[in-house]
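G., the chain you wanted modeled:
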Amino acid sequence: MKIAIAGATGFIGTRLVERLHETENQILVLSRDAKRARRVFPAEPFPNLEIVSYTPTQSGDWQQAIAGCDGVVNLAGAPIAEERWTPSVKEKILDSRKIGTQKIVEAIDLANPKPSILVNSSAIGYYGTSETAIFDETSNSGDDFLAEVCREWEAEAQKVKAAGTRLVIIRTGIVLGMGGALGKMLTPFRLYGGGPLGSGRQWFSWIHRDDIVNLILQALTRPDLEGIFNGTAPTPVRMADLCETLGEAMNRPSWLPVPDFALQLLLGDGAKVVLEGQQVLPKRTLESGFEFQYPALKPALEQILQS
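Predicted structure as tokens:
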């Protein structure tokens, strides 16, 4: 297969490229910074990888590169947990996803031949937050900023079906691996200062990085799959349980709660994702026959910490 990937240098994208390379697929990386992308993916050991510069929110010659690709994976989007959500930052978060997806869909519509599949990222922020509700792929959307972003993001992706291209949208939970959100949590535990974030009662719907990549690969290769799938492990946990399990895996105590303001300093307004949370189950994902390599938290954390 030849697969185009937007967001390839991100936390999920780098692992996806590695897996596609292992099975000798051709890879087209759409990157805002071609030099950085080449540092991440040097010609040796990635001889079957092509890098095309693009501006995600603008039409351009880059769109012609989509023609001849068998599939497209769109993982691109501005970070939500690095700064405060000023009006300009909110606009950047929304536009990077809404307009960025619009331009990917536009490229697919123009392509001849067209890719047969678009795998478009979304997030469990679609559902809003709750300490009591249980969400699956059939649940309604929430009413906060992140829910609005996800609705508009997904609405743009849905337009690809008019081009006759199969669409899979994956609403991704908090991805665990060496880096990402977990990487920011490890430091206080290593310094014997780890503990629950916020109240500790909020839900933490997570997925191992290898499992989200496997889910994307399944979407690319199974023509019977279409629609919305939750990219979350089948065992969401309370934040207090996450931190206790992480402490056990690291052989560190987990008793010192991290106050809300400290987390907001670390994650900006994106702290909302972990301070409020939601319990999300992968109902359709399991019904599709997908088998999680890491369905339970403790083995997932142990594998990550040992890698």
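The chain is about 40% helix and 20% strand.

Shout if anything looks off.
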